[in-house]
Hints:
Elements: H1 3-17, E1 19-21, H2 22-29, H3 33-45, E2 49-52, E3 55-58, H4 68-72, H5 76-87, E4 95-98, H6 102-111, E5 118-121, H7 124-130, E6 137-140, E7 144-146, E8 151-153, H8 155-162, E9 166-171, E10 175-177, E11 181-184, H9 187-198, E12 200-206, E13 218-221, E14 228-230, H10 237-245, E15 249-251
Parallel strand pairs: 4-5, 4-9, 5-6, 9-12, 12-14, 14-15
Antiparallel strand pairs: 1-3, 2-3, 7-8, 10-11, 11-13
Amino acid sequence: MIAAERRVLILEKIQKERTVVVSELAESYQVSEETIRRDLERLEEDGHITRGYGGAVLNETSRLDLPYNVRRGVNTEGKQRIASLALGLVPEGAHIFLDASTTSVYIARELKQRERLSVITNSLENLLELGQVTGWDVICTSGQLRPSTMSLYGRGTIQTVMNYHADTVFLSCKGMDRTRGITDGGDEIAEVKQAMIESSGQVVLCADHTKLDRIAFSQICGFDRIDCFITDEQPSVEWREYLEERQIRLICP
């Protein structure tokens, strides 16, 4: 196994488990602990992790995006549950925005059960998923390509979004905090999602349970802009009360 491939696997593991131990990684990949330390040093230099004694933890506040293939493989069952629940909010003939997130790809797949939808997205993965659907209007934004997220962003993207009005936007995030609101990895990502919120009648936040009580670099919005929250597990009592006080509909299994 080459070093680059091993580092991707380490990233997948740390994204799922939030922390890794050098000795355990060395045993798993059949390499020396010194080799693992070099891998972790490189991942820290890239901004993905923070090293500590004997291991490392995920850098939750990093502006960098994990490779798309890493994020796509995280909590796939949870994302599928979210997508199945999101389908219930979409009637035939609806106009919707889908953001560029791995969760939205699962939603796009579920939406193919509906007829005559209009979908506006800045996600190349969503476009590939919906490319063979007939009877829909699938609209791609303009913008600059961001390879790490397989998405388009920038002034052109925002202008395209603002040209439309959707019934609903489905969006995800990197973090949700009751004080700091809903956050993501960088300003250019947050700005596109803000434009989608401004251009939608209903705002549906779709995020798995790992995003709760986490803060990323850039704020998307406060909870006052959210109408509905779909997640894959029952949140804590504190979160349920918080959402209820703000009249945010909670949908979960």
